[in-house]
């Protein structure tokens, strides 16, 4: 292996590892705040990539119609829940205009936009913004419909719900996008040399985007009141509830952030590879391997673990491409063994 090959493998590993790092951060965030092992994270990766691919091909993405359906179901759940309890009815009257705007008017507006605008003629930043605008609101809607009614259940129950949501979203992905995969246009064709080693402009854009997003997340958690409320919920759900932090609002926000990170990751990787309705699961699963490094609790360790997973995958694809996936997922076994021997069991919070 010469220096040029080593540089290419290292560049590829760092790029994919950065994507996995973002996904691991999303998984750690959701688990810390809601105790949900977020198996559907991969579907948001696939939906983000395939929605952008459909937009660039001039097709109305099926996710726009799915957003309308989810909005309608969420609105019905909110109204039905409020009508069952008399004290909630007055609050429903105050909240109804906002609910109609966010759960009905916004999805219908996006659906109409995708049907009556020449989407392929939009500038790429607008296409990306539209794809994110369609996919990201699905996160809090799914939380409200599937998870919020069971927010105080055990981790095992929430895991079973996650599995059900994952399978439903995979089926919907097949229905909306078909079995064949797609990719998107490259962000740039720029290539330059760093010394004697070639560097892809695509990789630079991915790394800069990931670094900027991680910095923004850090500022959000460290400097804003909402971010500090999420941190408090992650540290102690009961204590946060006692000081007035809305646990349901924290759950919705964490799901919105996870959906946004997943969709953005799908958009970032789509120019590099073919994405189909089920390939997002494998991508997110590698982010989960990185999250396990941090015990689903430590953001920095999860990020470092994800970069390590990306490097292992890159070098494995060169030395033993047929066993690449086996090698990547085998890495998790010694980590799980080490954590089982060093961690102490803590009773689950009521």
Brief overview, please?
The chain has helices at 3-34, 41-56, 62-84, 86-116, 124-135, 138-147, 155-177, 201-223, 225-235, 237-242, 247-269, 279-293, 299-319, 324-330, 332-342; strands at 191-194, 197-200. The chain has 350 residues and is mostly helical.
Polypeptide structure, described:
The protein is mainly α. It has a single domain, classed as ABC transporter involved in vitamin B12 uptake, BtuC (Orthogonal Bundle). The chain is 75% helix and 2% strand. It is built from 15 helices and 2 strands. The chain has a two-stranded antiparallel ribbon. β1 and β2 form a beta hairpin. α12 crosses α13. The N and C termini lie far apart (55 Å).
Inertia-based shape:
globular
Q: In the CATH hierarchy, what is the architecture at level 2?
A: Orthogonal Bundle
**Kindly state the mean pLDDT as a whole number?**
84
Point out poorly predicted stretches: 346-350
List the helices and strands and how they pair.
Blueprint: H1 3-34, H2 41-56, H3 62-84, H4 86-116, H5 124-135, H6 138-147, H7 155-177, E1 191-194, E2 197-200, H8 201-223, H9 225-235, H10 237-242, H11 247-269, H12 279-293, H13 299-319, H14 324-330, H15 332-342
Antiparallel strand pairs: 1-2
Helix pairs in contact: 1-8, 1-9, 1-11, 1-12, 1-13, 2-5, 2-7, 2-11, 2-12, 3-4, 3-6, 5-11, 6-11, 8-9, 12-13, 13-14
Q: Keywords for this structure?
A:
15 helices; two-stranded antiparallel sheet; single chain; 350 residues; 75% helix; disordered C terminus; 2 strands; ABC transporter involved in vitamin B12 uptake, BtuC; mainly alpha
């Amino acid at each position: 292996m010469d220096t040029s090959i080593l540089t290419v493998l290292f560049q590829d590993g760092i790029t994919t590892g950065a994507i996995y790092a973002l996904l691991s951060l999303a998984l750690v965030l959701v688990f810390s705040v809601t105790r949900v092992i977020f198996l559907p994270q991969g579907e948001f990766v696939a939906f983000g990539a395939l929605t952008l691919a459909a937009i660039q091909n001039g097709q109305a993405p099926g996710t726009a119609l799915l957003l309308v359906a989810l909005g309608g179901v969420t609105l019905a759940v909110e109204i039905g829940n409020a009508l069952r309890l008399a004290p909630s009815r007055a609050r429903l009257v105050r909240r109804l205009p906002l609910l109609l705007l966010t759960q009905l008017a916004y999805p219908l507006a996006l659906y109409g936009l995708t049907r009556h605008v020449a989407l392929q003629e939009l500038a790429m930043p607008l296409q990306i913004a539209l794809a994110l605008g369609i996919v990201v609101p699905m996160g809090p809607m799914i939380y409200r419909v599937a998870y919020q009614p069971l927010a105080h259940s055990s981790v095992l129950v929430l895991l079973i719900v996650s599995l059900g949501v994952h399978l439903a979203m995979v089926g919907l992905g097949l229905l909306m996008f078909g079995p064949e995969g797609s990719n998107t246009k490259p962000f740039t064709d720029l290539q330059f040399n760093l010394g004697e080693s070639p560097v892809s402009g695509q990789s630079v854009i991915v790394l800069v985007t990931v670094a900027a997003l991680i910095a923004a997340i850090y500022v959000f958690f460290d400097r804003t009141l909402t971010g500090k409320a999420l941190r408090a919920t992650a540290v102690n759900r009961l204590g946060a509830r006692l000081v007035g932090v809305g646990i349901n609002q924290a759950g919705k926000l964490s799901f919105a952030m996870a959906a946004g990170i997943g969709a953005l990751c799908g958009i970032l990787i789509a120019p590099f590879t073919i994405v189909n309705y089920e390939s997002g699961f494998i991508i997110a699963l590698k982010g989960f391997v990185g999250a396990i490094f941090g015990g689903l609790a430590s953001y920095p360790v999860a990020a470092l673990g994800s970069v390590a997973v990306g490097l292992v995958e890159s070098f494995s694809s060169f030395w033993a491409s047929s066993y690449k996936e086996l090698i990547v997922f085998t890495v998790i076994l010694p980590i799980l063994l080490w954590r089982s021997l060093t961690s102490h069991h803590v009773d689950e919070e009521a």
